[in-house]
Amino acid sequence: MMVVAVQRLLDDATEVTADRSVRLLEAHVLAADLSSQAAAVASGSDSGPDAIVLAEIGERCAQLALSYRDAVSTAEWVQVPLADATAAWTCRLTGRPA
Hints:
Layout lengths: L1 H13 L5 H24 L7 H17 L4 E10 L5 E9 L3
Antiparallel strand pairs: 1-2
Helix pairs in contact: 2-3
């Protein structure tokens, strides 16, 4: 009986819920990775970026708002202007208020 009680205490101690700020940081890291993927797609083609691949990356960006709904209120796939008069796609997240 004592072994079961100790095991339950250990199980309870190891089950730690993720802090919202940590989850938001994880989502931002994933968003940055998606933005990097989009930049690679854009620079990897002489005829311009592959619209289908960019749309797929954009869908994965939108999915972040669902996967991290406790920390992210919106995930937008937006085009941002660059200094050389071109544009790039980026995954922009808005965190939930604490």
